[in-house]
Amino acid sequence: TLSLKERLAELIPKEIENVKATRAAHGKKSFGPVVVDQLYGGMRGLPALIWDGSVLDADEGIRFRGKTIPECQELLPKAPGGSEPLPEGLFWLLVTGEIPTQAQVDALSKEWAARAALPEFVEEILDRCPPTLHPMSQFSLAVTALNHNSAFAKAYQDGIPKKDYWGPTFEDSMDLIAKLPNIAGRIYRNVFGTGKLPAIDATKDYSYNLATLLGFGENPAFVELMRLYITIHSDHEGGNVSAHTGKLVGSALSDPFLAYSAALNGLAGPLHGLANQEVLLWLKKMQSKIGEEPTDQEVKDYIWATLKGGQVVPGYGHAVLRKTDPRYTAQREFALKHLPEDKMFKLVGQIYNLVPDILLEAGKAKNPWPNVDAHSGVLLTHYGMDQMQFYTVLFGVSRAFGVAAQLIWDRALGAPLERPKSYSTAAIQKIFENK
Ligand code: FCX
């Protein structure tokens, strides 16, 4: 079948049985002890969620349905003449666990183009935002407002039975993803005054349309960058702030628009998605202070000054990863292919050679290596998108893929309301009084 929904309908009964069997075999087994420090320590390492689209290994990095980023680059269908994977294919993979055919991917491109238009009142909301309102806040507002036409919210009001929840959740998820380029393009053009938004081209792929709406569609290298960018930012297992927020809010049966706008508000934090903006700000400040081609010593001094000023080095460290993020490596390879002489790319490479030793010497960060955000802004800047306040919006377009795929499965598998247990410090002291 060319239809993702039809394929999903075939897979759901099998997966319900698979989960049943897994729970029957392992449901009462322990993952090991929970220690009190995990409650105070942001729940690091606490096994707490099911997330099927991807699993993150501390050393190896992300695998989407078992496939590494280089494997996805090799196996997923490409655009004619392109060499990066089409994010349509990644979405198919996240939802089904299967590598789609070119025809299946083309059908998704068409379907998303057909669903791309925004309700007029959402366009008006965006047009009324002051350009000083951060693009991420505008993004979240627009996605929240899409709830107006939610198929799930309506079906729930009409009394849809639980086993059918996934159908309207799928419809909303497809609408959500399809409408993001128009939202992103409108915000970009409104805030940075770069002219009127063109129409979606129903014969082209998602990334081409996104690039065109942003005003960069004429540049095939930028379109390829969007394909890579959306593929690698899409999903990073379930515990990160944006993914977990989407899943948590969805568990209250808030529809995918409400769930994803909540996720976006988490992505907008500087320790998470906003780090890509912070990296560029940091690099620009560095360049204005020590020049475009500084010596290693000048860069080292600047990094130390950042740390001594009580700030984090943006783009470095990770709550799970303990090696260089393969999403960083994929972007570095893209840069080596397309912009090896770019001064800021060279600076990013120079920083890569210096930061890890300094973070190790400073002695706090558990992971001194770069994450995805250390590299993305340099690529965008190279092609002329130098408005760093916008960068997290692109991350947000991509992360919808992973969150939506899991929301569909959560509703298909009847995932319950999330409600972990919390304790006060007084309660913890009482529990362990005599132990
Ligand atoms: N620069 C300076 N100090 C750092 C650091 C960095 N890049 N990374 C971690 N540390 C510090 C922490 O601030 C913490 O200090 P504290 O004890 O005084 O509070 C200490 O090292 C231990 O933190 P650690 O356990 O290594 O890291 P966490 O799991 O708590 O946090 C993040 C992980 C990603 C938040 C942290 O490494 C950081 O702040 N990095 C910079 C921001 C960033 O790049 N975020 C993007 C991450 C990601 F890829 C994404 O979500 O997009």
Automatic annotation (TrEMBL):
InterPro entries per record: Citrate_synth-like_lrg_a-sub (IPR016142), Citrate_synth-like_sm_a-sub (IPR016143), Citrate_synthase (IPR002020), Citrate_synthase_AS (IPR019810), Citrate_synthase_euk (IPR010109), Citrate_synthase_sf (IPR036969)
Keywords attached to this entry: Transferase
GO molecular function: acyltransferase activity, acyl groups converted into alkyl on transfer
Gene Ontology process terms (BP): carbohydrate metabolic process; citrate metabolic process; tricarboxylic acid cycle
GO (cellular component) term, any one: mitochondrial matrix
UniProt xrefs under Pfam families: Citrate_synt (PF00285)
Residues at the catalytic site: H272, H318, D373
Homology family: Belongs to the citrate synthase family.
Protein name as annotated: Citrate synthase
